[in-house]
Each structure stands twice: as C-alpha cells, then as structure tokens.
Design goal:
The structure holds 2 protein chains of 2 kinds.
Chain A (H helix, E strand, L loop, with lengths): L2 H16 L6 E2 H16 L6 H29 L14 H4 L16 H14 L1 H12 L4 H8 L3 H19 L5
Chain B lengths: L2 H15 L3 H12 L3 H15 L10 E2 L1 H6 L17 E2 L2 E10 L2 E8 L4 E8 L1 H4 L2 H15 L9 E7 L2 E7 L4 E2 H6 L5 H20 L12 E3 L5 E3 L5 H4 L6 H4 L14 H4 L6 H17 L15 H10 L11 H10 L3 H6 L7 H20 L1 H11 L1 H31 L4 H30 L5 H26 L28
Antiparallel strand pairs in B: 2-3, 3-4, 4-5, 5-7, 6-7, 8-9, 9-10
Helix pairs in contact in B: 1-3, 2-3, 8-12, 8-14, 12-13, 16-18, 16-20, 17-18, 17-19, 17-20, 18-19, 19-20
The chains are: A mainly alpha, B alpha+beta.
Chain lengths: ~180, ~500
C-alpha cells in the first residue's frame, strides 16, 4: 500500500549500510531521491511531482512521529523484552532498547511529538499553514515547490511560513492557547 | 483559537512585519483600538518571530535507521479488549476479527435481533470529547441512512459502559487489497468491482456522506464478486486530512493513506465528493495494473482503454476536471460497452466497428436532416403565403434540432465516451420530439404542395426515410454499439436491494 513510504524505507536502509551509525541526513535528500527513483520506474507518465512530494512529506511526518513514540515507549518499558535480532516479526520498539540513544540528543532538534501535536492544533484553525509547515519542514520542499503544492504564491508561502513558525515556537514553549 | 481571531492576528502580524521595527508598536496600538488581548497576542507572536533563531529553519533531520525501521502503519488498538463469550451491553463477543488504528473489530452477536454484526470498539478518548462524539454521532447517523448493496450497512452507534461501539454489517470476504496483491485483476472483474464501488459512493454522496479514506483496505469483495465499501461515517476519524486524529490514537496517530489522498486533501483543503472520486480513480488504476499508479510504469499490461480512461479522469489532480459527481461516474461505467452483459453473466462485448456504425449513422443523419432544408425551401415557394412560411419554419426548427443533437452525441462519443450514455439518455426525448415534428411537418408540407408540384413525392419520401431511420436503424446501431441494453432493461435500473442470500454475506 504505502509505496512512497516503502521507497523511503528502502533508500534509508541503503544509507544505513553506507554511513556511520547516528549519521543523519536531511529530509529533502531522502524525499527527492525517492521521487527520482519512483519517477524513473514510471518514466513517461509520471508528471505530478508536487502531489508526490506532498505524499512524501506526510509520510515523513508519520515516520518521524512514530519512531519518536516508539523510542518513548521503549524507554518507558525499560527494555524488558527478550527478543533476538532475527525475530523480524517483533516490533522495532522491542528490538532496539539496548542501543537506544536518548531523545533530543542533537542540538537544534525539535521535539517531534510536541511539534506534531502543535501542528495538529494549528491545522484546526489554519490548515493551510499546517500544510505549509509539513511540506517545508518534514518534506524539505522549497518555497516555490510548496507554493505549487498548496496552490498559492511564493510570497504567501513565505508569509504563512513565518507566522506558523512563530506560533509553533510559542506553542512548543508552552505559550500559545 | 478560533479562525476569525486567528485571521485578525494574521492581519496584524503581516502588517507589522511590513513596517520598520520602530513603527510597529504604534501601528499595532492604533489597529487594535482598545482590544488589549488582541494586542498582547499579536505582540507575543511578533516577539516569538523576532527570536526564532534557527527554529525549523532547516528541514527535518532524519536518521536513516529511523525511516528504515519505521513500522508499517498499524497502530496500537486503543479500544477495549474483550474475549470470546464476553458480554458488552446487548452484544456477545464471538471473536476479534481485526484491528486498526481506530480500535479492535469484533464479530459479535446482537442478542436483541439475533444477528451477527461487526462491532468496532472506538477509542475511549472519543467518549471524553463531546465535540468529536457529537460529530461521530452525526456522521454515523448519516451513514446509517445509506441503503445500498455496495455499502456495508451501519446499524447503530452505542455507548456501553463508557465505550463507544459501532455496529455494522458483518462481511465475510477478502479486502480488495488482498486481491490486488495477488496481481492485476481481469478487466471484467475490475469493471464489476468498480461499478459496485461507484454505486456505493453515489448512494453515500446522495445521503450527504463522504468517505474521505477510500482505499482497497476499505473495500470488501464477497465470494459472489459483490464489493462493499466499509467504514463510512468513521473513516474521517482516521483520515490524515482530519484535524483531530492525533488526539485519537496513542500510536500511529498520523497513520492514514496518503497514497489515495487527492492533492487538495493533502494540502489541507476541504474534502468533498470529488475527493472520494479521486481515491476511486487511484484504486481503479491499481486494480487494472496491479500496482499503485504512482509506480505503475509503462510496463503496465494493456487494459481496456475506456476503463483506463475512466480511472485517469477520476484521478485528475484538478478536482474540476474529474467526474463532477458519483452519478457521472456510475453513468460512465455503465456506459462502457458490455456493462449490462457483465451483470447478466453473458459475455457480449460489442466490437469497435459497432460504435463506428452508430457514429456514422449519427453523422449521416445530421447532414441529411440539414440538407432537407433545400426541398423545404423550394416547397415554401410553391405553397406560398403564410402557410408556406409556417411549413418552412416548422421543418427548419425540427431538422436543425435533430441535426444539432446528433452532432452533439457524435462529438461526445469521440471526446467524452464515458459520458455518452448519460448524454444520450438526456437528449433522447428531444431527439424523438424533433424527429416526430419533422415527419409531421414533412407530411403536412407534402399535402400543401401537392396541388402545385411534384415536390410532394420528395417530401413524403423524406418523411418515410426519417421514420425508418429513427424507428429502426438508429435503435439497432445503438444496441449493437452497446449503448442500449435492449430487452434486458435499462442498465441504471437498481439492483435488488438484498440479493437472495449471497453466501458469506451474513448479518441480515
């Protein structure tokens, strides 16, 4: 079902073998690579890039939130599960406690779960701003790509993006109602 | 935060940023008048903006391992857990049959009515949110009014011991997802499933219910080939376009099905009937090729082009270029040659040449009718006076109307084949009227002109020709082209509401 999702996972798995553990990359790179690969398979017909990017951005948001939650859960459970690494049916949360890194370990990182929740609150009264954040932050889209995906002008994207960031920062600091 | 207030703040925020920093405070004060709370909100937001630093400046950093290990959407069931034999209100649990992000689904017996139902236990967090609960009740009530064989019937929404339970028809079949995963579905089956789903959407949309999360997982195909859409009325809870879903599930909250979401839904637009039509198009394309259209490549097997065209039109990125509603969609599917025979089990698929002859007839008739204005004009001169003029006007109106409408159908056949049946049924009464008027006025004209010249023979011959063409030739070409289902009755005739006990579709 989730092809884009699968593609993202496949590409990420390749990176894992190549890079040092703990090495991160930008969502932009991952998303664009997924697009290029899927587009190549689809050759002729594939045309709607922004639609694809929007899907990818949403998938990235899901992935990041889910992983952050799994980490939380793993910490709560204290790694009580006995699961071998070969047991592919085990949920990742059960497999990983031993080599778990702490949350918010890298400077500049935001709390993804809190951001996700704040974003959902924002979506309740300004869905367009929430979408723009999703595309820009989780999908790594440029202002122009975002403008095309949302169907507004780049100037509007910039304005909305500025305000959304300001509000989200306030929300994460616990200051917005 | 309500949207009105937010847009007020937005105006202030944007306005302030356009001004030099030192002029902002004065401007804001003037704009806000005496509304101190508004002023404070705007100023706080501006302060937050000034101190953004690098916040969200760079796209998300991802650890590839995170992405690679992310579990597929399944979600932790948030509903209650019951075992076989447990009694929940008037329901007796038989067994759990599935779980999704929204909770566990059980096969249960409704002891009041002694029927088996699919019982979905919705997250407890829903019960605590009055606004959501109200909306759920509204949607479930609306969904319960949908009576269509292609929609799993929603029986009731009940609150038992603090749990919200949705009881609906129990379906024992396989999801379309399973079928697709086994490879491309043959064209006939795909068409049949598509038709069921389209009719289900039509019934739902007529009842004012939009699905919002239509996907192969939500379509159950019974042993008899009947397809039913499930989760009407509650899919919005899970759909990523919804604004509340994150509050609803502990894990996998964002889980939805972006791959079937229309562009406008992905960018936060308000979903409407056309959103479901988009998802339908993606599903149809996937059925035909066995792969999701985003990855289905040139290697996709050749499929019957009209069905593919319907899929392509349904999933146009621009909503206005899709089918306007499910009625159009159903008409297009029913208009596909052979639909009626698929339903009746026969395998009569009209050839391409049949459609050609029908088109040829339409074109030729249009030209011939227009040409009849020449003898009519001559006859007008012979008859003379008011009668002559009246005859010509009547003939001209009838001939041009008949001609234009046929040219229109000809055009539709070439350009919008999917809507031909619909266009034809709409213009049929007018064509019939024009033809009859033409025959009558030709006969009358022949009578009037008989005294003056031999033109009466010509007019009578034309009247006979028109009669034969519209009474015999046209229906037979239309039937051959699959545009009429002949003695089997009209294709849009509703199917029996409850098929006589299809095996494996209990619940009644």
């Amino acid at each position: 079902m989730p092809l884009v999702y699968d593609e993202l996972r496949r590409i990420a798995a390749r990176y894992m073998g190549r890079e040092r553990p703990g090495q991160t990359l930008q969502a932009t790179g991952l998303v664009n690579e997924a697009f290029v690969r899927l587009a190549a398979e689809r050759s002729r017909e594939f045309q709607n890039r922004t639609h694809f990017l929007a899907i990818a951005a949403l998938s990235m948001r899901q992935i990041l939130v889910q992983r952050a939650r799994a980490r939380h859960a793993a910490k709560r459970d204290g790694g009580g599960h006995q699961v071998t690494l070969n047991d592919i049916s085990a949920p990742p949360a059960a497999v990983r406690p031993e080599f778990e890194r702490p949350d918010a370990d890298r400077p500049g990182d935001v709390d993804v779960i809190a951001l996700d929740q704040a974003l959902s609150r924002l979506a309740a009264f300004d869905p367009e701003q929430a979408r723009i954040v999703e595309l820009r932050y989780f999908g790594g889209l440029t202002v122009e790509e975002t403008a095309e995906a949302v169907g507004v002008s780049p100037a509007t994207v910039k304005r909305q993006w500025a305000m959304a960031r300001a509000w989200l920062k306030q929300a994460l600091e616990g200051g917005a109602e | 935060m309500n949207p009105q207030r937010w847009s007020q703040i937005k105006g202030l925020f944007n306005g302030a940023l356009e001004r030099p920093a030192e002029a902002r405070t004065a401007w804001l004060r003037a704009e806000c008048g005496g509304d101190a709370a508004l002023l404070a909100d705007a100023e706080r937001l501006l302060h937050s903006f000034d101190t953004l630093g690098g916040f969200l400046d760079q796209p998300a950093q991802v650890d590839p391992e995170d992405v690679a290990l992310a579990a597929l959407p399944e979600g932790e069931p948030d509903g209650a857990a019951w075992g076989p034999g447990d009694r929940v209100g008037e329901f007796e649990i038989i067994r759990a049959i599935g779980r999704g992000g929204m909770g566990v689904v059980y096969l249960a017996t409704d002891r009041r009515l002694r029927r088996n139902v699919a019982l979905k236990s919705l997250p407890a967090s829903l019960a605590g949110n009055p606004e959501l609960r109200e909306r759920l009740k509204r949607e479930a009530r609306a969904a319960a009014t949908i009576t269509d064989p292609a929609v799993a019937t929603v029986f009731s929404l009940e609150e038992v011991e603090g749990h919200l339970l949705l009881a609906s028809e129990f379906l024992d079949g396989r999801t379309l997802r399973t079928l697709i995963d086994e490879g491309p579905i043959d064209v006939r089956t795909a068409r049949e499933i598509a038709l069921h789903v389209a009719r289900g959407l039509r019934a739902a949309h007529d009842a004012g219910v939009i699905h919002r999360d239509l996907k192969p997982e939500n379509i159950v195909v019974g042993p008899g080939g009947t397809a039913k859409i499930v989760d009407f009325g509650i899919a919005w809870l899970e759909s990523p376009g919804g604004t509340h879903h994150t509050k609803l599930t502990r894990d996998g909250s964002m889980i939805g099905t972006p791959a079937y979401m229309a562009p406008e839904q992905l960018v936060g637009g308000v979903p409407d009937a056309r959103t479901d039509i988009f998802a339908f198009g993606v599903i149809l394309a996937e059925m035909l090729s066995g792969r999701h259209p985003l990855v289905a490549g040139a290697s996709a097997p050749a499929v019957e082009p009209p069905l593919q065209r319907i899929a392509d039109r349904a999933r146009q990125p621009d909503p206005t270029r899709r089918f306007a509603d499910a009625h159009e969609l159903v008409a297009a599917l029913e208009g596909l040659a052979g639909t009626a025979s698929v339903q009746s089990g026969a395998a009569v698929v009209p050839g391409r040449s049949a459609r050609f002859w029908w088109e040829f007839h339409q074109g030729a008739a249009a030209v011939a009718y227009a040409a009849m204005l020449i003898p009519a004009w001559l006859a007008r001169g012979q008859i003379g006076g008011l009668e002559g003029r009246g005859f010509f006007i009547a003939t001209a109106i009838a001939a041009l109307m008949a001609s234009m409408l046929r040219l229109h159908l000809w055009f539709m056949s070439g350009q919008h084949a999917g809507e031909l049946v619909w266009a034809r049924s709409r213009s049929a009464p007018f064509i019939r009227l024009a033809d009859i008027l033409l025959v009558v006025s030709l006969v009358v004209g022949a009578g009037l002109v008989a005294a003056q010249s031999a033109l009466d023979v010509v007019l009578l011959a034309l009247a006979v020709a028109v009669t034969i063409a519209f009474a015999f030739i046209e229906p037979s070409t239309a039937r051959a082209a699959g545009l009429e289902s002949g003695s089997r009755g009209r294709p849009e005739e509703p199917q029996p509401r409850t098929p006589p006990g299809p095996p494996g579709l209990p619940g009644l």
